[in-house]
Amino acid sequence: MIQPFDTQPGIHSVTSGYTGGHVENPTYEQVLSHTTGHTEAVEIEFDPTIMPYEKLVEIYWQQTDPTDVLGQFEDRGDNYRPVIFYTSEHQKGIAEKSRQALQESGRFSEPIVTTIEPAVTFYPAEDYHQDFYQKEPERYENAHMNRANFIEENW
Asked: Which residue numbers delimit the Peptide methionine sulphoxide reductase MsrA domain (predicted)?
């Protein structure tokens, strides 16, 4: 999820990490065990005058399968569930309105299951997870062919 945001104007940083669980400073291995309650997520620092939250949500929808509650493409498990986090009631309203519009668009035959939740403590992932698309371009491309096909078919 870093690359689609990282390359946009107005984005100061995109950090891979974990949020929403009950273990402080979890490791990747702990999150993969499905025992910490964490979701893998990205924290995006942005300039809303250049990159409004509405645009971030729009980019998000184009990167995920919002109908798959059990993961995303080849990444399976509750730690890969589709979720949009918000930091204000204004952002919450934007995300909910966008989700409703997507559901009503008829683009998907299945219901939109992406949840919209308040942002809680975010723990950055280990260094080797940061900027994965730049560090491991071949692995990144191979791992995301399903996502590219999905996007082409649905957007």
From this structure: 3-141
Mean pLDDT of successive 10-residue segments in the chain (155 residues)?
82 92 93 88 94 95 82 60 92 97 91 93 82 52 52 53
Q: Rounded to whole angstroms, what are the CA distances from 116 to 18, 83, 84?
A: 16, 6, 5
Domain boundaries, position 131: 2-154
Closest by CA to 57, choosing from 97, 13, 14, 3, is 97
**Which residue has tokens 């035959």?**
109
In 3-state terms, what secondary structure has residue 96?
A: helix
Euclidean distance between CA atoms 93 and 84, whole angstroms: 12
For residue 37, the SS3 value is coil
Q: Which residues contact 88 (CB under 8 A, 6 or more apart)?
A: none
Closest residue by Cα to residue 56 from 78, 87, 19, 21 = 87
Q: For residues 116 and 92, what is the distance between their CA atoms, to the nearest angstrom? A: 7
Closest CA to 56 of 66, 47, 65, 68: 47
